[in-house]
Amino acid sequence: MSYIVLIIIGAFSAIIGALVGIGGGIIIVPSLVYFGIDHHLLSGMTPQKAIGTSSVILITTGLTATLGYLKTKQVDVKNGLIFLIGIIPGALIGSYLSRFFTLDSFNLLFGIFLILISIILMIRNVIKPIKYFQQDKYMKSFVDRYGKEHKYGIPPVAAVLSSFVVGVTTGLFGIGGGALMTPLMIIVFKFPPHVAVGTSMMMIFFSSLSSSAGHIIQGNVLWVHAIILIIASYFGAKIGVKINSKMNSDTVVLVLRLTMLILGIYLIIKSIL
Q1: Nearest CA to 191 among 130, 111, 242?
Q2: Is the pLDDT of residue 21 over 70?
Q3: Are 259 and 16 in contact (CB under 8 A)?
């Protein structure tokens, strides 16, 4: 039964994660806690082990999705490297800070985090890009698979600092960082949505490598669970990339943000009672 649960979690999280550029950790972590701690279907589970195991899985999800998006020219490698300067050390620091979680504090903080992400996804289409970032001296260009040139502003200091904060949440919650990074690139830095999704998956790959290193050192990875989830995530990520190129992801984002809002409220209430 536990194997079936892991396969479903891995495949579903990777499909959704690759589809909207969030990596899937935001689904994996609460699922592992729910089935492992609340219902005892997954042995040896703690908040730290759910976070560490998720981080390892997101390496596969991030790599698979990134390779797929590179083929469709949806990854801005050159400009994405600027964000990696902040997100990699941030993820390592976050993985260390996760050791201080108790089950109640994890439920409370993760619940608040889910509600925050839900709100960001809800308002991302109505927030205008910051004009300061769109100055000529910060403008970068990227040519997509259709030959269309996109220009957007990436001030190096702002990019590194913001991605560092995202990196800390990556290691802290085992979520890959895409849940924050994708809307951040769209809202603040004016990335085209399809380029933001692809570039976000590249950053998820590298941030997961960094946070995984920290969690492996602390012994926070359940390897049997991780291997099953990795196999399921590999196929799920490939499916997510294919779906992304054929459908409007706004519908998926709508369902995702409502799910996160409900789950966030549930975790907060659970931590208080």
Answers
A1: 130
A2: no
A3: no
**Residues facing 150 on adjacent strands:** 142
How much is the pLDDT for 209?
94
Q: How many CB atoms are closer than 10 A to CB 242? A: 14
Task: Establish how many alpha carbons lie within 13 A of residue 200's alpha carbon, considering only the half-sphere containing its beta carbon.
Answer: 31
pTM of the predicted structure, to 2 decimals: 0.85
Number of H helices, E strands in the chain: 10, 2
Question: Residues of 86-111 as b/e, b for ≥16 C-beta within 10 angstroms?
Answer: bbbbbbbbbbbebeebeeeebbbbbb
Question: Going along the chain, which residue ranges are E strands?
Answer: 139-143, 149-153
Q: How far is CA 241 from the centre of its chain?
A: 15
Grouping H, G, I as helix, E, B as strand and the rest as coil, residue 153 is strand
How many whole angstroms separate alpha carbon 250 and alpha carbon 121? 10
CB 233 within 8 A of CB 61: yes
- Least Cα distance to 24 among 256, 190, 273 occurs for 256
Contact (Cβ atoms closer than 8 angstroms) between residue 263 and residue 30: yes
Q: How far apart are CA 17 and CA 179, in angstroms?
A: 9
Query: Which range has the top average pLDDT, 17-21, 129-133, 195-199?
Result: 195-199
Phi, psi of 140 (to 5 degrees): -120, 160
The answer to whether the CB of 208 falls within 8 A of the CB of 170 is yes
Instruction: Give the burial string for 123-145 (b: 16+ CB within 10 Å, else e).
Output: ebeeeeeeeebeeeebeeebebe
**Residue bearing tokens 């600027």:** 82
Are the CB atoms for 3 and 222 separated by under 8 Å? no
